[in-house]
Amino acid sequence: MQVSPKTLRILYYTGVTAILLGAIDPLEGSILIAAGATILSAVSLFTYDRHKTIFTVSTVGILIGVALMWFLSSLGGFGGNSGRPMWYGLFLIPYPLGWLTIVITLLVRLFKPKPKSLLV
Q1: Using N-to-C axis directions, what is the helix angle for 30-46 and 52-74, rounded to 10°?
Q2: What is this structure's pTM?
Q3: Residue of 50, 2, 45, 27 whose CA lies nearest to 15
Q4: Tell me, what's the pLDDT at 117?
Q5: Which stretches does DSSP call E strand in 8-116?
Q6: 19: buried, middle or exposed (CB in 10 Å: 19+, 13-18, 0-12)?
Q7: Please, which residues have CB within 8 angstroms of residue 89's CB and are 6 or more apart in sequence?
């Protein structure tokens, strides 16, 4: 399937914007972060990006962490009066870890110069 470069560029910036805006509120913004990470992962797969593995693994971690966070929230959370110990929060670690990995990768891409082609 062929996707125009302009469409891929728009999707890329949409994914980056969604990831950054979703960080304002980590619970309600988690859906926005998950969608943005999925868009970035799809764009990197379409463009054969060198960071496609990082984006894909981080997206899977985000999706798992977000699903578990919403599941635990639907049960009343953890700690306090919920009856579940605080260590249940360890199940949520893939979510912030995946988000942080994607943000660091985006910053590296922003400030590190692109490799020069040998076919100049």
Answers
A1: 160
A2: 0.87
A3: 45
A4: 59
A5: none
A6: buried
A7: 78, 79
